[in-house]
Design goal:
About 10% of the residues lie in helices and about 35% in strands. By secondary structure, it is mostly beta strands.
Length: about 450
């Protein structure tokens, strides 16, 4: 107890009372704790607040533990400021009760009310609770004040999570627009006081994946953070289409996000199909490699070729050789009675010469040889083919049953003449014999 105030600096103090009293008490002045470790316990069920002060300051990395089984843990009539320190406070009623402002700066406080639901872990009676900097405040039983002001350090964030005491941190969720990068003030209308679990602490975004156009989304608070990655696009030059191949417009493709753009600034997104210029298809055609057939070479109808790209669209076909166009026959060797002659005619287009035999002019033995038009080594298409004629044989005249000597003698075969002479001489001898015999018989009578 200190009527003129209590100052604890660079020290370790443990104060315990059992009964209706306070462990640390200064009703008219300030209790100042700096760079010290202080423990204050009021263990009786009917005890008073463990620390009772007109004003309280805790600073300079102090570590304070307070517990009262019969009343509030800490009761302050006027200003209370806790900076750069750690407090663990437990009280049967309001764990920390202030009849004025309670200022918390860069400190960690775990405050718990063990009584009924009508009490709070931190309570400022019609005044302000301010939480500044990188403070971490856990209020088991909630907190209430005329207003609660959250002021994060520049460039940092403070989050406010709320829930019920039974579930604690497990069931807590971000309150309103938490986390905050700028100062924010909550009043009774915001209903922060209705939650039995409140946790105010620095927030760090976690998880999520940034894309080319969007930053990552925090897995905890659902807010975007960081920067978009930006496109890493590669340009494809414009290419004109051909008859058979598609072309494309000038475009940029980002491999990271799989998107296409029509401008270098990557602001005009297009679908892949819009980059394609369809093949034009074959246009006008012309005939190439055509060749007329001649009597010596085959011809060709020609290929149907695209005038634009030169591709053969339709192959041609072969044209068979045409027949020779011959001129008049010219006798090159006159036939004789015993020797064959020869004649020839020439193709007026290619100069090809065709030759034919002319039969000898002697007496033929075969009527078919008498026309004198058979080509050499070939058959004369004008030669007789009648069934009533036979090659190399005598043709009989059925009207007089006599040999047609005229036709036979026109064969020109010399061996046949000798045979006929012999036959005729033999026949003459026989006739002479018959005549002589008949005369002798007549004389003998």
């Amino acid at each position: 107890m200190g009527e003129n105030g209590i100052s604890i600096s660079d020290s370790t103090v443990v104060a315990t009372v059992n009964g209706q009293s306070n462990a640390l008490y200064s009703i008219n002045n300030i209790i100042d704790i700096s760079n010290s470790t202080v423990e204050a316990y009021a263990v009786a069920d009917n005890s008073y607040p463990a620390i009772w002060a007109n004003a309280l300051t805790v600073s300079n990395k102090s570590n304070v533990t307070v517990d009262s089984n019969g009343d509030s843990g800490i009761y302050i009539l006027n200003q209370c400021k806790i900076s750069d320190s750690t407090l663990k406070v437990q009280g049967y009623y309001d764990a920390i009760f202030g009849d004025n402002d309670i200022n918390i700066v860069n400190s960690k406080i775990e405050s718990t009310s063990t009584g009924n639901q009508g009490n709070y872990a931190i309570y400022s009676n019609d005044h302000t609770i301010s939480v500044t900097g990188n403070s971490d405040i856990t209020a088991n039983a909630g907190m209430d004040a005329d207003q609660i002001v959250i002021s994060p350090t520049t460039g940092q964030m403070l989050e406010v999570k709320v829930g019920n005491l039974a579930e604690g941190e497990t069931g807590a969720a971000h309150f309103n627009d938490s986390p905050y990068t700028e100062p924010v003030t909550f009043t009774a209308a915001d209903d922060l006081w209705t939650y039995t679990y409140v946790h105010i602490k620095p927030h760090t975004h976690i998880g999520g994946t940034a894309t080319c156009t969007d930053p990552a989304i925090c897995d905890d608070c659902g807010k975007p953070y960081g920067n978009a990655l930006g496109h890493k696009a590669v340009k494809t030059e414009a290419k004109a289409p051909t008859c058979t191949e598609d072309g494309n417009i000038e475009n940029w493709y980002c491999d990271a996000c799989g998107k296409y753009f029509s401008d270098e600034a990557l602001t005009e997104e297009i679908i892949k199909e819009k980059t394609v210029i369809k093949a034009t298809g074959h246009g006008e055609t012309e005939l190439k490699n055509a060749k007329e057939a001649t009597c010596t070479e085959e011809g060709y109808t020609g290929d149907k070729v695209c005038k634009v790209c030169g591709e053969v669209i339709e192959k041609g076909t072969v044209i068979e050789k045409i027949a020779h166009t011959f001129g008049e026959w010219t006798v090159t060797k006159e036939p004789t009675a015993t020797e064959k002659g020869e004649k020839q005619h020439t193709c007026t287009i290619c100069g090809y010469v065709e030759k034919q035999e002319i039969p000898a002019t002697g007496t033929p033995t075969n009527p078919s040889e008498g026309n004198g038009n058979s080509p050499i080594g070939t058959t004369d298409p004008k030669a007789p083919t009648s069934d009533n004629q036979t090659d190399n044989k005598t043709v009989s005249d059925t009207s007089n049953n006599k040999t047609n000597n005229k036709d036979v003698l026109n064969t020109g075969d010399d061996s046949s003449i000798a045979l006929w002479v012999t036959v005729m001489l033999g026949a003459g001898a026989i006739l002479t014999g018959i005549v002589l015999y008949n005369r002798k018989k007549r004389y003998n009578k």
